[in-house]
Fold this sequence. Notes:
One of its GO terms (biological process) is maturation of SSU-rRNA. By secondary structure, the protein is an alpha+beta fold.
Amino acid sequence: xxxxxxxxxxxxxxxxxxxxxxxxxxxxxxxxxxxxxxxxxxxxxxxxxxxxxxxxxxxxxxxxxxxxxxxxxxxxxxxxxxxxxxxxxxxxxxxxxxxxxxxxxxxxxxxxxxxxxxx
Length: 119
């Protein structure tokens, strides 16, 4: 039962943070930045926020900008959610989309080799 509650809280935090990203004025947070997943601890003290950035070269810079804006994001998140504690936000770059693209490319290469090189 508690895991259902944590799951709903994770989804709500993800939704609110996605909306709040547009209000961050830090110039390092630019381009296509999206929140892919949120993982909150059971005591709701910490929330690990996985961030995907379209341009991978800017990923580390975007994470630094989000960490810098963490206090603002946490305060606004606390206003939007009715929780006893607003979790501390820990931002982490998510490269799962790149890994998925790489795996699809490998599978397509294998398929081309099996069919004799014809696309």
